[in-house]
Amino acid sequence: MMRGLFITLEGGEGTGKSTQVRRLAAHLRALGHTVVETREPGGSPGAEAVRHVLLSGAAEPFGPQAEALLFAAARADHVDAVIRPALEAGHIVVCDRFLDSTRVYQGAVGRVPSALLDALEATAAADARPDLTLVLDVPPEIGLARAAERGKGALADRFEKEGATYHGAVRAAFLARAGAEPARCAVVDAVPPADEVAQHIARIVAERLGIAAGAP
Ligand code: Z5A
Predict the structure, then answer these.
(1) Residue 52 is part of which domain span?
(2) Which amino acids bring their CB within 6 angstroms of ligand 1?
(3) Is residue 215 assigned to a domain?
């Protein structure tokens, strides 16, 4: 049985997930918890190798279904090597993207059938399910401008290079998932400055998970 807490941050490009994963982890550590910060695709040596294949665009010609299989392969390694051991040790895991990203990018936008995604999820994640998912929301033009500013000079990756229509569909699909699972998900307005967003997230985590100083 898993004893820790599993928090995921989701949302489109440049919504500030990585920034807020760091802030939330620091906040929880300051409260005395042991926190594992991680990300997808990646988070374990095997999954980081698959990340490179996915974000370089090497798998794109094979289509969204093949990409879904690769995201699942990376996830299986990440869950086995990092997430499950941390939860079993009673730690808090804060993860930048997880199952909802597959449902949005490969499912809602890539049109991979949900029966296949159900099967991949059962195999790759099994019982490692988020206790709380924070869906960071910004209009795509703001997110893309932030990502462009951060990555100035670098080539856009497989997903960054998609246009505004694509990123609008991603945003709508994340909001739909949050609306369908309100007990697990909370939508966070991620337009305000990062400090404000971090405070909002800390309040949600306290309210939803009852996390205070001491044990999670
Ligand atoms: N993907 C998938 O298709 N299926 C899956 O199952 C999974 C993933 C797991 C991973 O890309 C891609 O894989 C992803 C979906 C797909 N592609 N997309 N799009 P990634 O890991 O390389 O990138 P990302 O997850 O999209 O994150 P990101 O673009 O790197 O952005 P972010 O983490 O959300 O934001 P950030 O790095 O924290 O902030 C971006 C910039 O904005 C930075 O300069 C910050 O200083 C700034 N920032 C942050 N917050 C603020 C606020 N509040 N105000 C102003 N500026 C801010």
Answers:
(1) 5-209
(2) 13-19, 40-41, 55, 71, 97, 101-102, 105-106, 146-147, 149-150, 157, 159-160, 190, 193-194, 197
(3) no
Tell me the pLDDT of the chain (216 aa) as tens digits: 569 999 999 999 999 999 999 999 999 999 999 999 999 999 999 999 999 999 999 999 999 999 999 999 999 999 999 999 999 999 999 999 999 999 999 999 999 999 999 999 999 999 999 999 999 999 999 999 998 888 766 667 878 788 889 999 999 999 999 999 999 999 999 999 999 999 999 999 999 999 875 444
Q: What is the dihedral of CA 104, 180, 4, 22, to 10 degrees?
A: 50
Distance, CA 189 to ligand 1 centroid (Å)? 15
Domain count, the chain: 1
For residue 126, is it within any domain? yes
**Atom 40 (ligand 1) nearest CA:** 14
Nearest to residue 199, comparing CAs of 134, 129, 131, 130? Answer: 134
Q: Is residue 214 part of a domain?
A: no
Among protein residues, the one whose CA lies closest to atom 19 of ligand 1: 13
Query: What separation in Å is there between the alpha carbon of 143 and the centre of ligand 1?
Result: 8
Return the structure tokens found at 111.
Answer: 């049109």
For the question of whether the overall pTM of this predicted structure is more than 0.85, the answer is: yes
CATH at residue 139: 3.40.50.300
| Amino acid at position 67, single letter | E
- Largest interatomic CA distance in the chain: 49
In a domain, 190, yes or no: yes
